[in-house]
């Protein structure tokens, strides 16, 4: 059973008489290859309505396909209308799932002297260690004020280009996001994770979904688990939000995040514009695909562990999205990136965001910009919290190298794939470094398959 419209659940492919049609819908959607007329043609004061003759003669067919656009279709040749699930039921959750797992934050509330077997991951590589801060490799620092300044934009643009090519990560300072807003987000995120377990269960992952409290990419009961909890939800467009998640967040947290997610989207679009300049591609050749694109938010909670060297906070991976903006909630380090075969810790700067290139931007840039493997490690003393916002193209877009970056000397390195198909495959896999991106390479191991 799947919820359709407002308060009505029906199995797929059942014929229902028109008179019991819900009186109002948030959106009504159909596959893009179906001939259609605007939904507005059937709306009066936001109420979906038909003439009496239509109600008397046409049954309604509800289907459960993934919708990509908002339309209502009168299939007069078959004598029925197609109505599909609302867009709220068609966000990222419909593209994959994760098995339900225990809450690590609750696990450590009781004295834990030994790590449960399913969390043991002793095979992890150690990070690069140095006796001096000066000899440690540092992630580049990009100053948005300089990018926006006529006096410094050229030199800062070169730094940005180098950071995206060689590191895939950078810390962004002078980003223009209000410090008071950032501090509110930090404080209220901490309060959210400190809610009683009974309150948090209202936001628990549901079977077959990836959104809510839990862990992601758990595809088998034997799979090793991360030493951490997450809360993931779709944030933009607003009609992709699950009704029991973002709209039900406690106040003032919900209102704070409403402002924050818009700030993050605007910041991501600004950085994408500068990346277009650095790549010397046409204006909006990349950015326009993100303007009405997908945004998701992942809040991470990594409790202290009695054997931190035996576990991993988050499995090594590259981000599947276009661009990630990370906010460190407290001052505890834990993020590490793989560069030149070594794991390098990132020390977050005060009042900075950590920005990283995702797989989609590596594809768009035809391999010029790199999505870098990273992981989260934990310690034995203090919890670590962070908030990542992920930015991707709109669901009906296509992912592939930007045409102006493809030449006879530099042919396309990646196959083209629709965004919906791309994420459906991604969410169905366990995290494994950059393995999913390699599948999309033209010389990849699954070349020619329908990804």
From TrEMBL:
MF-aspect GO terms: metal ion binding; oxidoreductase activity
InterPro entries linked to this entry: DIOX_N (IPR026992), IPNS-like_FE2OG_OXY (IPR044861), IPNS-like_sf (IPR027443), Oxoglu/Fe-dep_dioxygenase_dom (IPR005123), Plant_2OG-oxidoreductases (IPR050295)
Pfam families: 2OG-FeII_Oxy, DIOX_N
UniProt keyword list: Iron, Metal-binding, Oxidoreductase
Source taxon at top rank: Eukaryota
Lineage: Eukaryota, Viridiplantae, Streptophyta, Embryophyta, Tracheophyta
Source organism per UniProt: Vitis rotundifolia (Muscadine grape)
Protein name (Swiss-Prot/TrEMBL): Fe2OG dioxygenase domain-containing protein
The Fe2OG dioxygenase domain, residue ranges: 293-393
UniProt family annotation: Belongs to the iron/ascorbate-dependent oxidoreductase family.
Keyword Iron annotated: yes
């Amino acid at each position: 059973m799947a919820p359709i419209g407002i308060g009505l659940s029906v199995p797929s492919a059942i014929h229902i008489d028109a008179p019991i049609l819900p009186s109002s819908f948030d959106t009504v959607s159909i596959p893009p290859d179906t001939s259609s007329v605007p939904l507005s043609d059937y709306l009066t004061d936001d109420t979906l309505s038909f003439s009496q003759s239509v109600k008397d003669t046409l049954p309604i067919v509800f289907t459960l396909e993934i919708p990509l656009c908002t339309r209502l279709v009168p299939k007069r040749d078959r004598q029925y209308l197609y109505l599909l699930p609302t867009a709220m039921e068609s966000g990222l959750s419909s593209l994959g799932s994760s098995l339900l797992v225990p809450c690590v934050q609750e696990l450590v509330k009781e004295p834990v002297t030994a790590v449960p077997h399913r969390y043991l991951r002793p095979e992890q590589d150690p990070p690069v260690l140095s006796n001096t801060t000066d000899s440690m490799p540092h992630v580049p620092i990009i100053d948005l004020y300089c990018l926006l300044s006529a006096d410094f934009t050229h030199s800062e643009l070169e730094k940005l280009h180098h950071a995206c090519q060689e590191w895939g990560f950078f810390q962004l300072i002078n980003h223009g996001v209000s410090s008071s807003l950032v501090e509110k987000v930090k404080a209220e995120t901490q309060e959210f994770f400190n809610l009683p377990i009974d309150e948090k269960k209202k936001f628990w992952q549901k079977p077959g979904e990836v959104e809510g409290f839990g862990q992601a990419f758990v595809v088998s009961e034997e799979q090793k688990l991360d030493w951490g909890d997450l809360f993931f939800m779709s944030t933009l467009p607003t009609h992709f939000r699950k009704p029991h998640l973002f709209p039900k967040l406690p106040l003032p947290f919900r209102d704070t995040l409403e402002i924050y997610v818009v700030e993050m989207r605007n910041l991501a679009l600004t950085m994408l514009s500068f990346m277009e300049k650095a790549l010397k591609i046409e204006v909006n050749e990349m950015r326009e695909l993100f303007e009405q694109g997908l945004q998701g938010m992942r809040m991470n909670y990594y409790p202290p562990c009695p054997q931190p060297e035996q576990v991993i906070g988050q499995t090594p991976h590259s981000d599947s999205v276009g661009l990630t903006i990370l906010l460190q909630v407290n001052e505890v380090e834990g993020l590490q990136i793989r560069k030149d075969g070594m794991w390098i810790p990132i020390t977050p700067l005060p009042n900075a965001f950590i920005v990283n290139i995702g797989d989609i931007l590596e594809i768009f840039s035809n391999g010029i910009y790199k999505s870098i493997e990273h992981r989260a490690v934990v310690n034995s003393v203090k919890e670590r919290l962070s908030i990542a916002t992920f930015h991707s193209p709109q669901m009906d877009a296509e992912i592939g190298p930007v045409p102006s970056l493809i030449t006879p000397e530099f042919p396309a390195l990646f196959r083209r794939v629709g965004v919906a198909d791309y994420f459906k495959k991604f969410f169905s896999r366990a995290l494994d470094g950059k393995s999913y991106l390699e599948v999309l390479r033209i010389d990849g191991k699954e070349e020619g398959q329908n990804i």
